[in-house]
Amino acid sequence: MKGLKTVYICSECGHQASQWSGQCPSCRSWNSMVEDVISQSPKTSAKHPATKYNNEPVRFDDYEIPEYFRTKTGLGELDRVLGGGIVNGSVVLLSGEPGIGKSTLLLQISGALGEGRKVLYVSGEESKGQIKMRAGRLGVKGSSLYLLVETNVDAILAAYKKLRPDVIIIDSIQTIYTDSVTSAPGSITQVKDAAMRFISLAKNEGVSVLLVGHVNKEGSIAGPKVLEHMVDAVLYFEGERQHIYRIIRAIKNRFGSTNEIGVFEMTEKGLKEVPNPSETMLASRPKNVSGNCAACVMQGTRPIIAEIQALTTQTMYPSPKRASDGIDYNRMGLLIAVLEKRMGLRLSALDIYLNVIGGLHLSETAADAAVAIAIYSSMKDKPVPDDLIAFGEIGLSGEVRAVSGIDQRVKEAIRLGFTQIVLPYKSADRLETNTQGVSIIPIRSIIEITKLL
Ligand code: TYD
Ligand code: MG
Fold it and tell me: Which of 97, 102, 104 to mutate to test the pocket of ligand 1 (most atoms within 8 A of CB)?
């Protein structure tokens, strides 16, 4: 067709090239170039009117921060991740694998958001009947909640003009298409263009926009990871489908911190907040079993106690099997190497499995000490005392390094009834919490864990 051009676009960084290549010339990621068809007409010129160059620089000291108003979503755990609610006029991308619960969550909050404010829920995936049925199951009432089943951006914008809602939910951005781009819905150019239209709507009209983005197996939002650069906040829905816990993490937030997580439990009636994750994660701890050790990790401002399980068995393979769920695979390898070298443990003859209960992903190195203790406990088949908890980073020489947030961690451990707290020697000096009745066990080196069991 005339005016159309085939291009190759990197699904990681959005780089555009006229020829396909195995590696993106811009961001160097492999196999990320996908074919797309774009229109060559200079349609974008209208978006950047050359005549409007009237932005003057303003002196930093003279500029006053505009007031950002936030709307509570009705789910405290979600508000926590957002930094206190959705900032009016912002664009939030909620991404996660299909079936993880994105539509459920958004339908739940649209009920609460709709109290006094208008919410437009646009679905490109489900019929009104399906949505209404689900809303009934979730107990969502919506006197000011409006449904629209539509996939065309212009039609959605027209509906916006008529209704003037305060919040628009687009479920999902991959199903939306614009006529100005010729490629198929879900292609990178389509998704980018459609998202751009909603972003300008948010910035011009002050409406808050929530976009749902499906993620493919590799973990990048199907097609455009590029979307992440365009929106104000990116929330990521984590958890295994078969687990009942769901975790929402902010991986980008222009209006808040990115360390916070929100913990939810899946129920028949939708997602339920878990305001006290430590208690939940420890709820069904087995007693007197080797290979289990509690760790205290910081998730943003909040300490969370997680249980780490290790299982070591004689290997049947030429090279031993290592599997990890919830702990970074490379970190696990490093800790095994340190245990082997510094403590002389013969781990190379063993298969090692690691697991964090409840579907938590621990990225903090403060979990190292508990991982090491769990592996050692399983190997020796000696249980770790139930009331023992450990945290501390382990270095390559086997030294236990100081971690931050020491008082918060110790307080949380005491609150949950732990009476033996293993921590880095250097951190122990800085401890200000009253630890009466609790034994604080400072350790300098990984070798000292032998005396704990
Ligand atoms: P859904 O919200 O449709 O996932 P997504 O929009 O991310 O693809 O949820 C998938 C299924 O799980 C759906 O059949 C509803 C069910 N579900 C519950 O029953 N309870 C819950 O708390 C959640 C989150 C989902
Ligand atoms: Mg959905």
Answer: 104
Encode pLDDT of 122-152 as tens digits: 999 999 999 999 999 999 887 889 999 999 9
* φ, ψ (nearest 5 deg) of residue 165: -75, 165
Least confident of 40-49, 90-99, 105-114, 253-262: 40-49
Question: Hey, which bits of 222-365 come out as E strands?
Answer: 233-238, 245-253, 261-267, 270-273, 292-299, 302-314, 322-325, 350-356
CB-based contact 376:453 (threshold 8 Å): yes
Instruction: Dump pLDDT digits (tens) for 193-250.
Output: 899 999 999 999 999 999 999 887 665 555 557 788 899 999 988 877 777 888 898 8
CA–CA separation, 110 and 74 (whole Å)? 9
Decide if pLDDT at 82 tops 60: yes
In whole angstroms, what separates CA 32 from the centre of its chain? Answer: 22
Cα separation, 23 vs 364, in Å, equals 32
Cα torsion for 421, 422, 426, 430, to the nearest 10°? -10
- Report CA(53)–ligand 2 centroid distance (Å): 42
Residue 42 in this model has a pLDDT that exceeds 70: no
Q: How much distance in Å is there from the Cα of 138 to the middle of ligand 2? A: 14
For residue 125, give the ligand nearest its CA: 2
Contact 76/275 with Cβ under 8 angstroms? yes
